[in-house]
C-alpha cells in the first residue's frame, strides 16, 4: 500500500478523460431523471387534486411502491426484469442501444417523481384554508385562485423539500454503476483499478460530488430566501 | 326599490344538525343590519350563504333581484359584487398590501395597472393606511391587516359588504380603528350585514338588529327597541347577560 | 406468473437466510441484523453529533456541521468505498463485507440521525430550557434531564422512518458482495437466468411489505405522540419533513 500522496497520478491524460466522462454522464443522468421526475410529479399531483377516489388510490399506490422499495432494487427491476417482459424482437432491437443509461433515467426519474409528488402535495396542504375562501370570495375563479394565490404559496412551502430531494436524486445517480453506467463512481473505480491509488481517486470523486451537492443546496437556499422575502417578518 | 338581499324560508343542515331554520328576512339598500346572539346561533352561517361560501338545502336567496343559486358561471360574478371581510383577515401573505388590493380588479375587471393602483391608494387612504402600501401582511398588526382586508373587499366596488366577526380576532386596543372604518362606510350609505359582538357599535350604527338563536331569527327590531325593550324572552335574557358586565 | 409461486417454493430459504447452514447467514435475516445493528450503533453517534451541533462551543459546532454536510453531500456508495479502503488501514487487517457495510451505515446514518435529533431538540419551546435554567440546572443537567427525554420521544416517528431508510440502504451491500437480501435475489436470478422479472418482483415485494409495515408503525406512533402532546405547543418532527436518506 503506497503511502505517498500523488494527486497528479490520477489526473493524468486518459484517467482525467475517464473522470470527466464520468462527471458528464452523472450530470446528464441527473438532469434527465430530474426533468422526468418533475413532469410526472406535476401530473400525479394534478390527478390527486381532481378528487377522483380511484385515481387517488392509484397515485397513492405508486408513491407507496417507490418509497418503500430500495432504489437499487427498482433499478434492477427495470434493467433486468422489464426487458424480459418485452417481446423477443423488441429485446433484440434494444440490445443495439445504450439501455443502461435509458433504464437508469427511467428508474431514477420514476422513483423521485413519487417524492416530488408528496413534497408538492404537502406544500399545498400547508396553505391555510382561509386563503382559498378569501380568493374565491373576491370572485376569483378556481384557476385564477390557483394561479395567483394558492400555487405561489405552495411553491414557497415545498421548496426546501424539493431541494433536498433533488440533491438525493443527484446522489442516487451513483447507483447506476451497479448496472454498468459509466458515471462518476464507476469511472473512479476504473481509475483506481488502473492506478492502484484508491485514496486519490476517491478524493477526486468526493470533492466533485461535494461541490455539486453544495451548489445545489446553496442555490436552493438562495431561491428559498428570494421567495420568502414576502413571508418573513 | 327591491331589497338588496332577500332570504326566503332558508333552511340549512349539516348532516343531521339543523343549522338554519325557516329564515325569512330582507336587507334594504343602504340598510345596516347587525346580527347578534349567542355562539352557535347560525349568524356566521347565514351571512356566508349570501355569497355561497355555505350552500342551503331549502329556500331561496335573492341578491339584487337575482337568485344566488344560478349557474356556476355566475358564481364568480356574484362574489365579485359581494364584499366579504373574514374574522381571520385572510390577506395573501405573498403579496404586498397594494398587490392584495389590486389583485381582483386587475384580473377580473381588467383594470389597467396605473388606474388600479390609484384606486387602491384612495382606498388605503380611506382606511388610514396609505403609508403601508408597500408593506407585507406579516409586517402589519392585526388591526392594520383587517383594515387592508376591508380595503381589498371595497376595491371591487360592491353594493353590499358582509362582515363576519371582523374584530373578534383582534386585541382590544385595535378594535376601535376597525370599527371606525366600518362606521365611515355606514355613514356613506353602504348596505352592510355585520355579525359582531360589539354592542356599542350596533347601537350607534345599525338600522336593524336581527337577534338569532339556534338557527332562527327570533327578533328583528331597531337598536333602541332591541336594547331597551326586547320583546322575545330569549332576547331579554341576552340583553340581561350583556348588562351584567 | 405462477412461476413466482414455484420460485418462492424452491428458493425461500435462500431469500430468508441465505446459504446458512451451508454458508454464512444471508438473505432477509442478514438484512435485518445489519439494519438493527446499524441503527443501534448509529444512534449514540447521531446523538453526540446533535449535541455538538447545538452546543455553545464554536469549535465543536463547526466540526460537527462540517461532518454532517460532507456526509449529506456524497452518495452512500462513495462512503462504502471509502470505508472499504480506510478501515482495514486503520485496523491493520482486512474486514468482512458485513463489517464494512455496518461501519458505512453507522457513519452515514450518524449524520442524518444527528439532523433529526437536532430538529427535535430545537422544536421544543424555548420555555423548557428557560424554566430549567431558572430552577438552577446547568447546561448539561438541563440537556440530560429536561431537553433530551422530550426531544427523543417526539422524534420517535422520524427514528422509525430512518430505520426504514437503513433497511433500504442495506441493499447497496450487494455491490460489495455482502450476503443480504438483494444479493440473495441476484443469486437466485443467476441460477434461473430466464425469469428475472419474477425474481426481482419477489424481491421488491419483500422489501415493500417490510418497509410499508414499518411506515404504518411510524404513523401509529406519530398519532399517539400527537395526542399526548396536544396543546403543549410542541411540534412533532414529521418523518417526511426532515431530510430523508431514502436510497
UniProtKB/TrEMBL annotation, chain A:
<feature type="transmembrane region" description="Helical">
    <location>
        <begin position="29"/>
        <end position="47"/>
    </location>
</feature>
<keyword id="KW-0029">Amino-acid transport</keyword>
<keyword id="KW-1133">Transmembrane helix</keyword>
<dbReference type="GO" id="GO:0006865">
    <property type="term" value="P:amino acid transport"/>
</dbReference>
<dbReference type="InterPro" id="IPR043429">
    <property type="entry name" value="ArtM/GltK/GlnP/TcyL/YhdX-like"/>
</dbReference>
<dbReference type="InterPro" id="IPR010065">
    <property type="entry name" value="AA_ABC_transptr_permease_3TM"/>
</dbReference>
<keyword id="KW-0812">Transmembrane</keyword>
<dbReference type="InterPro" id="IPR035906">
    <property type="entry name" value="MetI-like_sf"/>
</dbReference>
<keyword id="KW-0813">Transport</keyword>
<keyword id="KW-1003">Cell membrane</keyword>
<dbReference type="GO" id="GO:0043190">
    <property type="term" value="C:ATP-binding cassette (ABC) transporter complex"/>
</dbReference>
<keyword id="KW-0472">Membrane</keyword>
<dbReference type="Pfam" id="PF00528">
    <property type="entry name" value="BPD_transp_1"/>
</dbReference>
<feature type="transmembrane region" description="Helical">
    <location>
        <begin position="162"/>
        <end position="182"/>
    </location>
</feature>
<feature type="domain" description="ABC transmembrane type-1">
    <location>
        <begin position="23"/>
        <end position="220"/>
    </location>
</feature>
Automatic annotation (TrEMBL), chain B:
<dbReference type="InterPro" id="IPR003593">
    <property type="entry name" value="AAA+_ATPase"/>
</dbReference>
<keyword id="KW-1003">Cell membrane</keyword>
<keyword id="KW-0813">Transport</keyword>
<keyword id="KW-0472">Membrane</keyword>
<dbReference type="InterPro" id="IPR030679">
    <property type="entry name" value="ABC_ATPase_HisP-typ"/>
</dbReference>
<keyword id="KW-0067">ATP-binding</keyword>
<dbReference type="InterPro" id="IPR050086">
    <property type="entry name" value="MetN_ABC_transporter-like"/>
</dbReference>
<dbReference type="InterPro" id="IPR027417">
    <property type="entry name" value="P-loop_NTPase"/>
</dbReference>
<keyword id="KW-0997">Cell inner membrane</keyword>
<keyword id="KW-0547">Nucleotide-binding</keyword>
<dbReference type="InterPro" id="IPR003439">
    <property type="entry name" value="ABC_transporter-like_ATP-bd"/>
</dbReference>
<feature type="domain" description="ABC transporter">
    <location>
        <begin position="5"/>
        <end position="239"/>
    </location>
</feature>
<dbReference type="GO" id="GO:0005886">
    <property type="term" value="C:plasma membrane"/>
</dbReference>
<dbReference type="InterPro" id="IPR017871">
    <property type="entry name" value="ABC_transporter-like_CS"/>
</dbReference>
<keyword id="KW-0029">Amino-acid transport</keyword>
From TrEMBL, chain C:
<feature type="domain" description="ABC transmembrane type-1">
    <location>
        <begin position="28"/>
        <end position="218"/>
    </location>
</feature>
<keyword id="KW-0812">Transmembrane</keyword>
<keyword id="KW-1133">Transmembrane helix</keyword>
<feature type="transmembrane region" description="Helical">
    <location>
        <begin position="64"/>
        <end position="85"/>
    </location>
</feature>
<dbReference type="InterPro" id="IPR043429">
    <property type="entry name" value="ArtM/GltK/GlnP/TcyL/YhdX-like"/>
</dbReference>
<feature type="transmembrane region" description="Helical">
    <location>
        <begin position="32"/>
        <end position="52"/>
    </location>
</feature>
<keyword id="KW-0813">Transport</keyword>
<keyword id="KW-0472">Membrane</keyword>
<keyword id="KW-1003">Cell membrane</keyword>
<dbReference type="GO" id="GO:0043190">
    <property type="term" value="C:ATP-binding cassette (ABC) transporter complex"/>
</dbReference>
<feature type="transmembrane region" description="Helical">
    <location>
        <begin position="91"/>
        <end position="113"/>
    </location>
</feature>
<comment type="subunit">
    <text>The complex is composed of two ATP-binding proteins (GltL), two transmembrane proteins (GltJ and GltK) and a solute-binding protein (GltI).</text>
</comment>
<dbReference type="InterPro" id="IPR010065">
    <property type="entry name" value="AA_ABC_transptr_permease_3TM"/>
</dbReference>
<dbReference type="GO" id="GO:0006865">
    <property type="term" value="P:amino acid transport"/>
</dbReference>
<dbReference type="InterPro" id="IPR000515">
    <property type="entry name" value="MetI-like"/>
</dbReference>
